[in-house]
Fold this sequence. Notes:
The complex is a heterodimer of chains A (about 260) and B (about 140). Chain A is mostly helical. Helices cover about 50% and strands about 0% of the residues of chain A.
Amino acid sequence: MSATATQPEAMPDRQETAEVQPFIPTPERLSQLLEMDIGEVRRMYQSATERGQLVDQIMAEQETLSEYHSNIYRDEMEELIRVGSEQLAKNPDVSLFELEETLHEVQQSLAAKRDFLTETSPEGLSQGEAKEQVLERVEQSEEQAGTEKEKGLWHKAWRAITWLPREHPVIFSILLIAAAAWGLSELFEYLGGAQVELAGEADALVRETSGAAEAVTPVTGLTEPGSAITAPGTGPVSPSGVTGYGDTMLPSTHPSLPSDIPGTR
Amino acid sequence: MMNELHLTPAEQKLFLSLPEKLREGWKVREETQKFEDTKKHLRMRVSFLKIRDPKLHVFQEEIKKAKNEKKIAKLVSEFDLKDVHQADLAELFFALGPKPLFRIIEAILRQAKTDEEVESVAALSLVRNALLRSFIRNYV
Lengths: 265, 140
């Protein structure tokens, strides 16, 4: 594989496209990028045991690809291909457009997460990554964090948060998110019962994730607005100038999705 | 700087209404970033949440074993964030997104009576500032 041998979609000409774009690994794009038969790529893409080989091939060209793409990281490629393969498994006739839409959303979330974690908590990088990749990223994050003073700033900020008193709205909010991710509906319902307001269908999130947050696979569906939920403490709170989540079409296995998340008492 | 508060104009007004003693020593910077979060983004973020902290896993197991709401209420009321790993806090705040922090910060400022509460606003506004930056940069 070489940069010159690939199709424009997979490897844009740098002179034409100065901006480094993320790589969205659909089977079609991978077929172009790796110069492999599309049928073979699709088969490997959907095989839990073989899709790692596709990632290996991408990562073998990391240096070259990184000149053109901003997201050539092993964990990100693994995640994108996993989600793509699950999408294809659920709906083999899914259009390329739909698949790309989903993978774009995944890619944006992963990139936002990488940026946020890198800035705020470089030691918390994924344990699944190759060590050199982690070290490289830590190095980058240190550059990003700038000075020792700046790194100390985040340490102080997180420490201030860990010292928040019990039953603080922040604690309820993050427990609520954890409950959704863990699929703990009893905890979620309890938190939805008093202090923290949830305007939306966050309970659907609990059902959806079912305690396996990392394995949630987006598939195409529609959402419907749900009713407000409140969580422990003082009861419902009226929204205070914060607009709700839009009624966007979402990929979902359930008819509804969270439209808002915890507020405060 | 941990003596900086990243506040929206409305929050700045609330801060200015606090007693002078509480305001002493803090520098206010205007939070100008805006981001309209969506259900789709939230759902995706929660789906990628990775929690590794042993304290949180113990809590998860205790909740699973809890037989009734009373027991859950007790566990929740006794839970604090002391010793929770910073990386896991970052994961949780990332999944949560910036939106709830606007309301939490406003609520704290409305009733702040101690320096610790103002310090928590500084920390939360810093987290919100970083979240907004990463969301605006990547959710396009």
